Amino acid sequence: MPLYTYYLSSQDYGVVDLITSTQALLMPFITLTVEQAILRYIIGSKDKNEINSIFSSAFFICVISVFVFLIVCIILFYFRVWDPKLIFYFYLLICISSFQVIFSTYLRAVDKNKIFAVNGIIQVLTLLVFNVLFLVVMDLGIDGYLISLILSYVVSTIFCLCNSRDVGISYKLVYSKTLRKIISFSFPLIPNYSMWWLVNNSTRYVVLSFVGLSANGLFAVASKIPMCINVFVTVFQQAWQISAFEEFESQDRSKYYSSVFRHYYLFLFLLASFLLVINKWIFTYLVSDEYFLAWEMVPFLVFGVLYQTFSSFLGTIYTANYKTKSVFMTSAIGAGISIGSNFIFIPLYGAAYAGLGAALGFFIMWVFRLRDTRKIVYTELNYLEFFLLNVVYLIQIALLFIFRESSLFMVTAVQSFTFCIVIFISRSFIYTTLTFAKKKFLKKH
Predict the structure, then answer these.
(1) So where does this one cross the membrane (predicted)?
(2) Are 271 and 69 in contact (CB under 8 A)?
(3) Is 90 exceeded by the pLDDT of residue 238?
(4) Using CA atoms, how far apart are residues 69 and 97, in angstroms rounded to an integer?
(5) Is residue 200 a contact partner of residue 358, using CB atoms and an 8 Å limit?
(6) Per residue in 271-327, pLDDT tens?
(7) Domain spans, the chain
(8) Do 371 and 326 touch, CB atoms closer than 8 A?
(9) Residue 184: which residues within 8 A CB-CB, separation 6 or more?
């Protein structure tokens, strides 16, 4: 992020952020989330013909979708709806990332998790190298950022292809029955996988309309802080999906799911609380002065990400039970509340409250899912512990604004005190984690 904020103005950063965010928003609609069907139907399957048929059908759907999107982009290009160069970049980004998603998901489905992890590292490293080349050395600005992103997806896709040679792709294996099965499973998942980006994008456009382009640039930078949580969540969700599918038929699944969820929310609240401790430090020392006020947007954005991840956790129970229509319904409710709330909070209170609508929508979505998924698997919740963690986090937010004019040292001291309270509430989890890590370390040495 410091690299981008240094070499891109707030307006330029706002433009590229809108492009990448819109890409993330459209991806589930372009791929129809067929990668989730690849994961659910291939995992554990020993029938090679079935595996090839599922993947070939998913690949066929993706090809058709990318072709349809090409026609849409040509129309946009013809009528000059947007900058033609940006339309070209945007199409390449959508096209390449669509195929990267289905090939990388195949690696997970056939238990090539180490290769999948290496692919993620390669993509990050290539993005970093290309960023340095095109942004720092060649100073290409927006073009450099987008070219770097596209090339990182190209390298990742090639790597995935080289490690997916065991799968047979043939149009002869595309059966209408398989297509119907994939689409009926995947289609209801679209709102779920696009919701965070739908809410985030709608927030951007509301900020843009009511506050201005510079505020949108600040929002773009502030949105990167919750991504620290998403880094951990992405890794966890990838492992959790597989575990949830494998343990779904187990007699102890309720105990297992409840235990995992408790450890999950304790860790995330610790991380979220710590982010508020270092929030103003980040915007004081690591980000250009032009973006300093973005710190005000971070607390509610982080809170929204917390409940988005909690909702995603419970959403996996639906997919494990093939009840993807319930995912659709709960996602639609949450998205509607989030988007509607943005039109209330942002015009009235300004960009600092841009994440409040998302937090409210995801919280209500989580409540609906918790009640509904208990009909499938009863997930126990320590209500007192969970309530206290929420209260302490909200107190941290309030203290940030109360001490907004105070010195950085004072703000950090106050936030550190509240963080210690979170540590105290989570002490059993921390002790268990450290004991487990110690045993693992001693076992290796």
Answers:
(1) 55-80, 86-103, 115-138, 144-162, 182-199, 264-286, 298-320, 327-346, 352-370, 382-403, 409-434
(2) no
(3) no
(4) 13
(5) yes
(6) 999 999 999 999 988 887 888 888 999 999 999 999 999 998 999 888 888 888 888
(7) 32-174, 189-445
(8) no
(9) none
